[in-house]
Amino acid sequence: MYPYLRVVRCLLLGAVWLLGVTGASASGKLNVQKVDAPKTLGPGETIRVSVKWRVDEVPDGRWTTVMELLHLPSGPKFSSALTYSAATEQSKVGDIIQHTYELTVPLDAPPGDYNLRIEHYRRAGEGWDRMPNTNEDADLKGFVYAHYTLGVKEATTAGLKVVSLLDSKPQIKVDGKLDEASWKKATRLAGFVNPTGQGKPTQQTQVLLLRDGKTVFFGFRCLEDRMAKLKDLTADRDGGVWNDDCIEIFLDTNRSRAVYFHFIVNARGTQYDALTEDRLWNGKWSAATAREANAWTCEVALPVSEVGVPAVTDGDSWFVNFCREEKPRGELSCWSATGSSSFGAPGSFGRLIFGSFTGYLNRAREELRAQVQGLSTEVNGLKDRKLIESVAALGKDLDAFHPSATTSEKYQTEQKALETLRERKEGLAAAKLKAALGGEEYVIWERNPWLNFPPKIPISEISGETKTLSVSMLRNATESRALMVTNLTNETLVGRILLGGTPQPQVLVPTFVRTADGRVTADALPPADEIRKLEIPPGETRQLFLNFCTRDVAVGEYHLTIAFSPLTVSKKEKSVEVIMKVLPPRLPEVVPESVFGWDTLDVKSLEEEYVKTLAGRRFNAFMLLSCRLRPHYAGQTDFFMMFGTDQNKPGLDFTEFDQILRLKKSLGGPGARFYVVVAGVEQRGNAEQVKPYMEGWGTAAWVATFKQSVLSVRDHLLAAGLTYSDFWLNPMDESLNDQYLKMATWIKEADPKLLVVSDCVGEPGQAQAVASVTDVWCPHYNAFVSEASKPSIEFMRSTGKPIWMYYYSEGANEKARPAYRDYLVRHWFTFQQGLTGTCYWTVSSHYGDPWNRHTTTSAYDPSLLYPGATAAISSRRLEAWRQGAEDFALLSLVRDSLAQVKDKDAALKQRAEALLKEAVDTVVKRSGDPKVAEAYRERLALLLADIEVRR
């Protein structure tokens, strides 16, 4: 489960367990006197552990100290050998030896109680000696064993950075210079750290904060001892300012831990803004920069109304982070560590409090008091004496809570006390709901399937029990719904999921995974097992993610049931009636857009399962990488060698290439097409790796061999039964430079019928230069919403060639991103823009641990699939992507059907066209509301059925 820890342990202990521990020949005996360490710590935290030993028999020589954490009560969950040190020193009997060790708990350590064990080893021939002790405690007899219990806390945001900001009525002229008198009164933040939290940058940054009720001012002083190498090339609004020296501001004003406003200013003063990653959002704010001898400075004035807040008053709060990209040394830094190299990690943002710490806590207390008063009114009508008394006791404790925090440390203590009171309120709310349901111990309720959720959902989100569920669908479609089961008791609820009637939905049970910034999210969607057993801990909620499919279902109305049957006899079974209406129109087998992913399939044993899963989620275009050809650079995925050492022969080995081609062709379904990377080489990266490929690049011999390689790939694809329209060739990744032009030209010279695709928007003018040798354009989503990229996009449209859009979000917190906005709505955007393809990078590359992210893994976490023991496991994001692709097919059907409406139905056509436009524009605009697409989907399906009847 934790292989990297096992490796560390084995390296330090060598063959302790394999070769045996003798212990008999060891000289020396120690007695544990005292272990001094905190009683609790959280994942990722580092503490100092002090241990005192009494020498009862002087040890001979030097020993190695090994420290381990043993999870209780089930034995070792992981072990961590943490340090080498001399276990003994010159000593005599009766001496007290004190050693201090540092202990870091891995981020993926499960919460619970642990034993801290410290022992001493040394090599003894082919085995190991283990030093005995003379402790009287039976648990400590035998060997030196520091027995100390500590608790590992669950990952939480409670300890994040916090700062208060008082109203100072500042007078600021936004010119980049921090010279106004108001800045001397500013709240100051310093101590920037590396994003991972490990170490600090050499070039520090200071943030200054000022505000009144309508505007927040941000000042930055970015120390830089290499000012001559400052980078500030980007001049276009919403351009790639992150490629320059820049500061970044992240504001989660709704405290959603998911959606945030993002502002960037480069050293030139160029501005960028987005709502999370959506550059369609633009705010009205001002920024300017200036330069000093050893620093550059920045001023930003942000009207709070631009970020959805009418005004800020004392007691308000936002989640925020401040970050910097420093280019002379390549340093990344931020105020609040994010847990990875990605800045966009809202789970790690600190809290900005408007007003004093005490003012914020008092407001939070009053809000909680109002909730408790409302709860008191509700429980009084239930005539439950014990519950009424418990609510009254909570009210008294709230009255006695008088915060007085003047420091961030005191704030953290009082915030924790407030959280305890809030948890009590949630427990009482659950008891109230249980009593209102007649003493029933769990509740089943409906929730939008695209919304993520934590294990414990606030009771306030439960509006009542769901008795019926309805869904209207076209034929050959899949529709997702979700039912939540909340346990209202203090014991684990165990039961089975029962299905009645046909056609039965697929039942997926979301599994929680962790992102790098500590958020727990229900993203993985494994199918319910054969017995459909479900366990729900006390006070927690689990979801039944339901996929209703009408592939082979006749038109009509179907009545189904979904029930939860507790295994405890005393608890009664509950069921939900499902009314499923299947409408006459049928979605096509292949959706009318190219649905593509850069599926590098990095778990070889699951390749077939991966492809089968993608094809079942409406993917119809698949990647064929030239790294599947031999010879190539082992272990490299950026640089591919297409030919052998003999420059006159391609020397290609198609064995592995053919395996994946046959797999994707057979499982990809009707209309499967292929995106072929034929070169993928750029003059960048490790020179020694690229050198064998680039030697002679562009010479007649090199070009002839390259063309021969391309023709070899072409012949292989045609021999496999593909036509020229079934595949596209990509000569270079994310580039439209001169090298791309030459590579694409050589492909066209080899065979003009070959189709070339480019996945780059390029600099202004580059698209025009390569248009004659490019058949498909595929810019990133950001290019379509960027003012700087508009000329290039408009030119691409003018060529009349197919245009796709691809999307990816870099970062180790991808699994917690909004599935609806970032995956489902992307297809509606593609339809709105008149594009013909939607692509995602990437669907199966895990870059480390695919289940739980932490600082030791890569900064990327983009996979839409999880590797199961024998099958690929879908994700909420992949299901949203599939739903979006089917929505694209529905929108296309409505559009195409309207073209065939007869003149006598002109009024219907006009209403239908208006509804189609309204639906698309509204879904794209309101991308944060997942109920919108569901409502319009049903209206459009009914409209399509009406059109078909009239035809």
Description:
This protein has 951 residues and is an alpha+beta fold. It contains 17 helices and 41 strands. Strands 9, 13, 14, 15, 18, 19 and 20 form a 7-stranded mixed sheet that branches. Strands 2, 4, 6, 7 and 8 form a 5-stranded mixed sheet that branches. The protein has a 5-stranded antiparallel sheet with strand order 10-11-12-17-16, with no helix packed on it. It is globular and about 90 Å long. The two termini are 60 Å apart. The model is unreliable at 1-25, 72-87, 138-158, 631-648 and 680-687 (pLDDT under 50).
Uncertain parts = 1-25, 72-87, 138-158, 631-648, 680-687
Helicity range: 25-40%
SS-based structural class?
Answer: alpha+beta
Sheet having the most strands: 7 strands, mixed
Chain-averaged pLDDT: 83
CA-based gyration radius: 31 Å
Tell me the number of helical segments per DSSP (H or I, 4 or more residues long): 17
Shape: globular
Counting DSSP E segments of at least 2 residues, the number of strands comes to 41
- Strand composition percent: 25-35%
| Cα end-to-end separation | 60 Å
Present the secondary structure layout.
Elements: H1 3-13, H2 16-19, E1 29-36, E2 40-41, E3 46-57, E4 64-71, E5 96-104, E6 112-124, E7 127-130, E8 148-152, E9 162-165, E10 187-189, E11 205-211, E12 215-223, E13 246-252, E14 261-266, E15 271-275, E16 286-291, E17 295-303, E18 317-326, E19 331-334, E20 350-354, H3 357-380, H4 385-400, H5 408-436, E21 442-446, E22 468-475, E23 478-487, E24 493-500, E25 506-508, E26 511-514, E27 520-525, E28 533-536, E29 541-549, E30 556-566, E31 574-586, E32 594-597, H6 607-616, E33 621-625, H7 655-667, E34 673-677, H8 687-694, H9 700-719, E35 727-730, H10 738-750, E36 757-758, H11 766-770, E37 776-777, H12 781-784, H13 790-798, E38 804-807, H14 819-832, E39 837-840, E40 866-867, E41 872-875, H15 876-898, H16 906-925, H17 931-950
Parallel strand pairs: 2-8, 9-20, 22-31, 32-39, 33-34, 34-35, 36-37, 38-39
Antiparallel strand pairs: 1-3, 3-5, 4-6, 6-7, 6-8, 10-11, 11-12, 12-17, 13-14, 13-18, 14-15, 16-17, 18-19, 18-20, 21-23, 23-29, 24-28, 24-30, 25-29, 26-27, 27-41, 30-31, 40-41
Helix pairs in contact: 3-4, 3-5, 4-5, 6-7, 9-10, 14-15, 14-16, 15-16, 15-17, 16-17
